[in-house]
Amino acid sequence: MIREPLIFEISAPGKSAYALPKLDVPADDKALAGMPVRTDIPGFPRVSEVEVVRHFTRLSQQNYCVDLGLYPLGSCTMKYNPKINEKIAGLPGFAEAHPSAPGETIQGGLEVLHRMEKYLAEITGFDAFTLQPSAGAQGELTGMMLIRAYHEDKGDARKYVLIPDSAHGTNPSSAHLCGYEVKEIKSNAEGRIDLAGLREAMTEEVAALMVTNPNTLGVFESDICKIAGVVHEKGGLLYMDGANMNALTGIARPGDFGVDVLHLNLHKTFATPHGGGGPGSGPVGVKKALEPFLPYPRVEKKGAAFALEFQRPKSIGRVRSFYGNFLVVVKALAYILSLGPAGVREIAEIAVLNANYIRKALEGVYDLQYKTETLHEVVFSDKIQKDAHGVTNLDIAKRLIDYGFHPPTMSFPLIVHGALMIEPTETESRRDLDLFIEAMKTIAREAAENAEVLKAAPHQTYVRRLDETAAARNPIVIWESDKS
Amino acid sequence: MSYIALSDQDKKEMLARIGAASVDELFGCVPGEARLRRELDLPAAMSEPELLRHMEAVAARTTYGKYRSFLGGGAYYHFIPTVVDSLSARTEFLTPYTPYQPEVSQGTLQVIFEYQTLIARLTGMDIANASLYDGASAAAEAALMAQRLTHRARILVARSLHPQYRETVRSLTRNLGLAVEEIGFGDCGGVSSAELRSKMGPDVCGLIVQSPNYFGVVEDLAGLSAIVREQKGLMIVAVAEAVSLGLIEAPGRLGADIVCGEAQSFGIPLSFGGPGLGFMGCKKEYLRQLPGRICGLTKDVDGKRGFVLTLSTREQHIRREKATSNICSNQGWCALRAAIYLETVGPDGLREIARQNLLKSAYASAVLAKIPDVKLRFSGKTFNEFVLELPKDAAPVAKAVQAAGILAGLELAAAYPELPKTLLVCCTEVQTKEGIDHLAAALKEALR
Q1: Which of A424, B37, B146, B316 is the most exposed place for a label (fewest CB within 10 A)?
Q2: What is the CATH number of domain B66-79+346-447?
């Protein structure tokens, strides 16, 4: 198969893919005098338009994507992204509005923000939302900043944040960026937070407990109300990572089960495309007591009109420019409006049905370290295949690629060695679920009969297994034709 | 509208296979006290035509598009070549996740690698990351990076840095023991080098300066970096109007150690402020303290060239609380648009676009400054924005110009009380001479 060259390798002097209108003001080069001006940008490519088009079209064909098939990355919620939402986000009133324009000229944008805050508050059971955070990790950071501001306002910021050992790596990292020391809470044999352990760890020096619910095993923390009680009793706050909210929409609301601060990922639960890594959006919901600390500006409704409010003396400030990833919010709003209340509940119902269907079909074929019932995802491991045939989760993942699927999540939870975290989401058809199950069973068979085919997988991709160690040891992160 | 792909028969059979009587039974682990016992209070479901009609009506309540706009201040309207929209809309770019599985993500990875190369070359830095959320948070990440690299307690921030960038730097660093101090601007509109010299010390991580700055003024980066360097501090240059890099010398050749900023200008619509595209480049020796995703070149088992996400030991999923940043994603799709934009316009196109920005803005500032009692507030050289000082309060004047169908500029008084009666006016390549003359006439009329 032919590899698409780097654009720099097909560049040639004199080519161009762009023409500008003729300058219609005086070419007064005095304006440039006294300024450090560059005459060229060394190493920039010169290509024609058709070469640009073929370059990116060919590159696009080297990607797997949700529109091609099941993308079972656990905790990433790779559901179908409705096409209409893209069209709506492209409406000039949304896509071509300047964020600093006078209030009366941007009413549509402000209405989107105001309504989205209201709908997210209803879906999750909170009193107020900010849509400013750009992604889940920035939402977490914002949430922890709010918690710190709340405690500081009471006179003591406190010292520690408790985080279960099953948590995603962004949790401890975000807590640390707020100046907190992280204490890890061990999971019990069910894969849940150990209530006795929590009671012991929860002191008046602890600012918050960060939970993910359902957690990264897909297990619901059934003691969540008691957990909230233990945290609140010592004056702490309960933070919830909403990465797995897809399991709960319309079924249970974090604000009702004791959570004080929550972040959502619009690019997960609310079907906005992941874009090969972003842009996302990480709104944060809070209970009344934390509302004064939310980032400014806030959108307020004054009579029939919407306005931006900047006077927020207790606010944590800004976490980025303007109002967040607005167009992502537009897409998510369109999604909520298309589904309606029953449709939003159906997200969780079918996501959980699909995940349990896969679990049932593969239980016994793959090891399930925690037997506890699960909701929207299931975490198998490579234990059976590894112990008997030396086949790892990486081998299984790479072989799945040959069968036309994206592999599951493998990098966490850290409490399951050789994890295969599978989240099908609610938008998969029975046929695609069955094909995936069949592929996983075939791979298990191959592990026993022909392990080598797994260890050398994938076989049918543009490139085969890549040397990640060499990439990290001798990093080449930009193109320098003389070196590569 | 529902996006569920199961038939009722499918559901029935699947439940039977699972051994559950109903879907509700699958939620048995969610205790009653935690359950929602009512339907959500949301608007009724809409069909696609209803949704489109509804959202078109909402979008139409933003009337900004009816005005001729001279607004800039960190969000810029530039022409976007059609290929940017049509190629970035390809579903193979839009609907994958972060490229964790390189064998099925070579498209995204190669695009990131090209993007990193383009940013490094534009900024004059050795290396660049795979992008950050936006310019403001990129500036905050740069401050934290400088703290990690120098282990010093203070950082200096130009008052001529975008107000929102300054606010973001303050809020994101405030719990990490980094004192943020501002350096004022002189009559030229650039950083006061005397004040910088007096505040710079051996306990200072470095200086964050924007160029062209918030007032559009091109800073004397070489001069400022010499002062910063005397104390072995780091020179951090923020660029909010990335198009300027096509014409103005790369910050890396004027003493910058880290260059960060906002690249919305490269093929990304105004989008009411987001998503944009944060970028960051730095010297090679700082690679392991660079935050965010980084794509690297490597070989596969057959010796074929390929790309992977690399240096993940800096990152949260391995290092957890000791990570260089909590960032988990980039603005992948926006970086793609920037790459398509830059490869389409090429070095000559970008230079010409930048030149037209500068010349149209120079024409506008000259025409506007001829209006009686209107003058340029600063003497420094500007790129595509400039600050006008009016003989009276800017707000009613701007309103009067708006009545003539023109948004003349941003009022600076709220963010800069020391700059009353001023407007920040922006002219990109999309403005025409006729439009600029129209603005001048309307402003003259409003001041009469």
Answers
A1: B37
A2: 3.90.1150.10
